[in-house]
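Title: [Solved] 8-oxo-dGTP diphosphatase 3D structure

Original question kept below for reference.
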Amino acid sequence: MTEVACALIEHNGRVLVAQRGLHKSEGGLWEFPGGKLEPGESPEACIVREIAEELSLQISPYARLAPAIHVYPGKSIRLIPLLCRLHGGKLQLHEHAACQWLLPQELPALAWCPADVPIVEEYIRMRHNPQ
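Solution (posted by the thread starter after getting help):
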């Protein structure tokens, strides 16, 4: 099983979502950006590295949500979502087709990658029922 970290980058009450490049698997679908953990790498270190590489942003993870396991044809992934704060950088798309800053209630309108769907649902529940 491949371990993948994804970032729910929050800023001014909105969260960053990214559209996968059309040349990739699941191309055109929306996701929380991230990438595969390298051997021995923590999800937190992975997400800071991946977001800097893919979006030129500096973030700091502050909490994890429940991981989502998804089985694709020929592979399985364990998607580890991390809530993150934006600290700097200028958003640049190196791998994605588009990005948007959305309010939590706007998230269901997008066509999501299947692995991200349970994370979207948990995030919306969490933001509508803050502890």
